[in-house]
């Protein structure tokens, strides 16, 4: 049966006249029969017209296949169907409305259903987002909004507002389909980026020579891919950039955090390099210079350190420049976070869909995980390289050399010379924005190493009150190295991180009797009356403090005086040998 659209306006008027005549000849209750006939004519006509538009769209597509970026068939069809609906609204619906109050609603509902069959079949076969697919889905979304608008306007005066027929128009969900495809595309890109991170880090050598700025090429490559990913996202012709942006930012943020975590992995930490403290012993008066003690302890300590480091990195090839390049790399990533966020804001401002968005509220454009990972990563790497230098690289002049035997003949000079060489490496390698942090950690490690030698250096070390001046002079020389005549660390930082050592050094000038009394007093204060019969032996660990029992006990253990030796023997029965 040929439809109303094909017959034209005159035929539509004849149809209405026939219906009118029939209506006049029949009872008033039979008006529904006439309305149903018009409903049938409208639906049949629009189905025929839609099929014709389908053929036209296909022809248009074939004709334009040699053109640059030709429109997809369903995008062409959506435009044609929209024009058909407007034509129906203005030409035929006014004629038919007298006998069918919802003529326009029936027409657009029919067209909506016809296009729904095509677009839903199309969506079900789509797995990746492309420019053509976005054009189709956006065209479908626009068509649906236009059809619904016509239906709402036509049904405004009806009894039920046209709800019954409008229910025949279930949403195409084109916008949701776009969102799902974009999210799928984001996940694919993020997964690929993570693979790139693994591949780049597997090939990374962390050598200063690979980059003039002392940064890893892998970081440059990852940041480049992130730039390309952001550009590709904002080039998508979609209306929902602000809505979908958080998914992309979260994915990129996790990849960058992953890079930071992998960059610091395997480099150890502060505790990796601090040697295990030997058990407490009393000082064996007159025997502290025996070579057998030096050789035995040196051998034991070297084995302990080598075991620790081998567990950490397998081949002990973790040189000082390598963690410095890692630190530079993390600094580069952190500085790029601000640049990336500014670029995202710029992209958003240029998006038509985001021009009304308030940007002052953050708009989920922030990288939440990477900055914290950066801070933690730089902290761990900085401490690792500092404590590695002091307790591993320089162990031969610190742990195995400083104050072993006679303090006056084993002073700090050798340690300072090698520390200075490492300071030069750090100054030449580490970026100036994080250089102070690394040098500060090196000073902290040096102070910790200095105190560890004094308070836990093993039975090859013993000090008399006369050695206090040597120790104080050596510590001043250590601070001066980091002060560097005003070109090094600020004086307030040096004072801050040398405070513990400054607090402990006066104990070396204190006479043994006073140390014993002070030790008894602070132990009773700490443990109460239960400590009177037998003073508890504290664990052999810091932190050091001149008013803390363990620190005072260790001062007595390393005091080269008979009074200290007798007190330790009587109170704790400490051995004089390990």
TrEMBL record:
Q: Where is the composition biased (Polar residues)?
A: 300-317
- Domain (MHD2): residue spans on this chain: 409-519
**Residue span(s) of domain MHD1:** 134-277
Region of interest (Disordered), residue spans: 296-317
Pfam families recorded for this chain? TPR_PATROL1
| Name of the molecule in the record | MHD2 domain-containing protein
InterPro entries found in the cross-reference section: Munc13_1, Munc13_dom-2, PATROL1_C, unc-13_homologue
């Amino acid at each position: 049966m040929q439809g109303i659209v094909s017959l034209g306006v005159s035929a539509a008027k004849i149809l209405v006249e026939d219906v009118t005549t029939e209506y006049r000849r029949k009872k008033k209750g039979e008006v529904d029969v006439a309305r149903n006939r018009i409903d049938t004519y409208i639906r049949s006509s629009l189905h025929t017209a839609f099929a014709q538009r389908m053929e036209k769209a296909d022809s248009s597509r074939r004709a334009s296949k040699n053109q640059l970026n030709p429109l997809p068939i369903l995008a062409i069809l959506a435009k044609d169907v929209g024009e058909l609906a407007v034509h129906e609204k203005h030409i035929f619906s006014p004629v038919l409305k007298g006998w069918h109050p919802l003529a326009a609603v029936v027409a657009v509902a029919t067209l909506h259903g016809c296009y729904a069959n095509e677009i839903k079949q199309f969506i079900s076969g789509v797995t990746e987002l492309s420019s053509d697919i976005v054009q189709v889905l956006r065209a479908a979304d626009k068509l649906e909004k236009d059809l619904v608008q016509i239906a709402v306007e036509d049904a405004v005066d009806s009894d039920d507002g046209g709800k019954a027929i409008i229910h025949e128009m279930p949403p195409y969900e084109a916008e949701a389909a776009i969102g799902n495809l974009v999210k799928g595309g984001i996940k694919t890109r993020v997964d690929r980026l993570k693979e790139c991170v693994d591949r780049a880090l597997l090939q990374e050598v962390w050598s200063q020579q690979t980059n003039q700025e002392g940064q890893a090429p892998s970081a440059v490559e990852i940041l480049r891919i992130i730039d390309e990913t952001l550009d590709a996202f904002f080039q998508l012709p979609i209306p929902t950039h602000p809505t979908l942006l958080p998914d992309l930012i979260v994915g990129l943020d996790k990849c960058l955090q992953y890079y930071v975590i992998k960059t610091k992995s395997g480099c150890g930490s502060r505790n990796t390099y601090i040697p295990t403290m030997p058990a407490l012993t009393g000082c064996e008066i007159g025997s502290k210079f025996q070579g057998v003690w030096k050789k035995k302890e040196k051998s034991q300590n070297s084995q302990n350190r080598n075991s620790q480091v081998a567990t950490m990195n397998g081949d002990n090839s973790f040189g000082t420049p390598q963690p410095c390049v890692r630190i530079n790399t993390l600094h580069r990533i952190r500085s790029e976070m601000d640049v990336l966020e500014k670029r995202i804001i710029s992209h958003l401002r240029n998006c038509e869909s985001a021009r009304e968005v308030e940007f002052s509220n953050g708009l989920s454009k922030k990288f939440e995980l990477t900055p914290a990972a950066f801070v933690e990563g730089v902290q761990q790497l900085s401490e690792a390289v500092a404590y590695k230098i002091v307790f591993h690289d320089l162990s031969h002049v610190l742990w195995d050399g400083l104050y072993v035997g006679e303090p006056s003949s084993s002073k700090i000079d050798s340690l300072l010379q090698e520390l200075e060489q490492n300071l030069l490496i750090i100054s030449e390698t580490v970026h100036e924005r994080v250089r102070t942090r690394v040098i500060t950690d090196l000073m902290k490690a040096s102070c910790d190493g200095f105190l560890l030698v004094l308070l836990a250096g093993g039975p090859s070390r013993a000090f008399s009150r006369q050695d206090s001046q040597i120790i104080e002079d050596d510590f001043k020389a250590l601070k001066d190295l980091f002060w560097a005549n005003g070109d090094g660390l600020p004086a307030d930082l040096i004072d801050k991180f040398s405070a513990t050592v400054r607090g402990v050094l006066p104990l070396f000038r204190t006479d043994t009797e006073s140390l014993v009394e002070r030790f008894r007093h602070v132990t009773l204060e700490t443990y109460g009356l239960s400590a009177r019969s037998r003073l508890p032996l504290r664990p052999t660990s810091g932190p050091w403090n001149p008013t803390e029992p363990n620190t005072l006990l260790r001062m007595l253990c390393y005091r080269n005086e008979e009074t200290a030796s007798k007190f330790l023997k009587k109170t704790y029965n400490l051995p004089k040998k390990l």
